[in-house]
Design brief:
Bound molecules: fe (ii) ion
GO molecular function: carotenoid dioxygenase activity; metal ion binding
Strand order of the largest sheet: 3-8-7-4
Cofactor: Fe(2+)
Helix content: 10-25%
InterPro entries: Carotenoid_Oase (IPR004294)
Order of helices and strands: HEHHEEEEEEEHHEEEEEEEEEEEHEEEEE
Number of strands: 24
GO biological process, one term: carotene catabolic process
Keywords: Iron, Metal-binding, Oxidoreductase
Structural class: alpha+beta
Strand content: 25-35%
Radius of gyration: 22 Å
Largest sheet: 4 strands, antiparallel
């Protein structure tokens, strides 16, 4: 595969000295494809914005180490400035797609394969600034190592139907899940249409590549060119009403790809969840389990163990007033989510055999992402990113969140 990729693109006439410079496409022979007249030159891919925005809050308190020496303090300040600049670049919109090859004798021989990454990278449409990074359109980057010292880079926006529509219109046509479109509340009122952002993750399975976003269906991409092929249904496994998580899991014990969806039923105060298990060879469905979990739910990630699918059930809700304000366009629906610190967080254990879910009370927290999870000697072992509460930020002002660092 790598040979085919390298053959299709020009070699670098003057290869850079190692180590490879990743974010300097202008220093090497590049092949660019303009995607619109708006915006400025791409400055990287904007990858990792989602995770960064989760961890870094608007007004988190900075606790510096006690009385650092002058030199150490200067280094800390310099590092902090560099971090702030890097963080701010996550809010810049990429306006072009890149395709180039670099060469370095220092790359390990035999290192072959492709690393895919997805993230929101289109944060400006015409003159309209998208105010929350979660609402940016996805761009997938692929970095291929050929085992001969060559590394080939290309990135492309995921051409969802909404992306194409807005590119042609040169303005935001859809409300974000976490930020409004331009034009004030009147432009947003009663507009509950959803644009598939395809901006959160990529899944390579059975030789096929998909850009994932939990509010919609997977978008299939060409694994070599990362060009968009169209909306996928996993060979019909996903029905018209189904979405698919951005964080599928691989079950090493069975070799299956496991994913889920969740859809809150606010009037009935339940959340409907479905889990799929795909056979190792492709998308034939080995199992689909449907379950109902009480209350409104916000489930971004999950775990699969030998006997359970595991979700973190946080004490979140949308108040009637929040829902009304959301419908009237005064705030996004995401901004209407409230966290009740007086209630416990629960682990929801949904048995893989389809029997009734069980719940375990934990200290109050919010878990956006799990690490690993498994069963051992009758115990459940879980790694997770533990946050004291849910912080999504108020995107209505359009201010950028502030980067702070917590240090113990
Ligand atoms: Fe995530």
């Amino acid at each position: 595969m790598a040979m085919a990729l390298s053959a299709g693109f020009p070699a670098v006439s003057n290869p850079p000295k190692a180590p490879l410079a990743y974010s300097r496409p202008g220093t090497v022979k590049s092949q660019k494809e303009a995607i619109g007249s708006h915006g400025e030159r791409a400055r990287g891919v904007g990858c990792g914005v989602v995770a960064g925005a989760v961890l870094l809050t608007r007004r988190s308190k900075l606790q510096m180490r006690a009385a650092p020496a002058v030199k150490e303090r200067a280094e800390l300040q310099s590092q902090r400035r560099a971090d702030q600049e890097a963080f701010a670049r996550g809010y810049e919109s990429a306006s072009s797609e890149e395709c180039f090859t670099l060469h370095s004798e220092d790359l390990p021989k035999g290192l072959r394969g492709t690393y895919y990454r997805n993230g929101p990278a289109k944060l400006k449409v015409g003159k309209d600034q998208i105010k929350h990074p979660f609402d940016g359109d996805g761009m997938v980057a692929a970095v291929t190592f050929d085992g001969q010292g060559n590394v080939h880079f290309r990135n492309r926006f995921v051409r969802t139907p909404g992306f194409v529509e807005e590119l042609e219109a040169q303005k935001m046509l859809y409300r974000g899940q976490f930020s409004p479109k331009s034009g004030g509340w009147l432009a947003n009122a009663f507009d509950m249409r959803v644009k598939n952002l395809a901006n959160t993750n990529v899944m390579h399975w059975a030789g096929r590549l998909f850009a994932l976003w939990e509010g919609g269906k997977p978008m299939e991409l060409d694994p070599l060119s990362v060009a968009t092929l169209g909306q996928g249904s996993f060979a019909g496994a996903l029905k018209s009403e189904d979405n698919f998580t951005a964080h599928p899991r691989f079950d090493a014990r069975t070799g299956r790809q496991v994913g889920f969806q969740y859809q809150p039923d606010i009037p009935n105060s339940v959340t409907n969840v479905s889990f799929w298990e795909f056979e190792p060879s492709g998308f034939s469905t080995a199992r689909r389990v449907n379950a109902q979990i009480p209350d409104f739910g916000f489930y971004h990630d999950f775990l699969v163990t030998e006997n359970y699918y595991i979700l973190s059930k946080a004490p979140v809700s949308i108040s009637p007033q929040g829902a009304l304000e959301g419908m009237l366009g005064f705030r996004s629906m995401g901004e209407s989510i409230r966290f009740d610190a007086s209630k416990p967080t629960q682990l929801a254990l949904v048995p893989r055999d389809g029997s009734e879910p069980r719940f375990i009370d934990l200290d109050t927290h919010f878990c956006f992402h799990f690490g690993n999870g498994y069963e051992e000697d009758g115990k459940l072992i879980i790694d997770m990113a533990f946050a004291a509460s849910l912080e999504l930020g108020d995107a209505s002002s359009g201010d950028r969140p502030v980067l702070d660092r917590l240090a113990s």
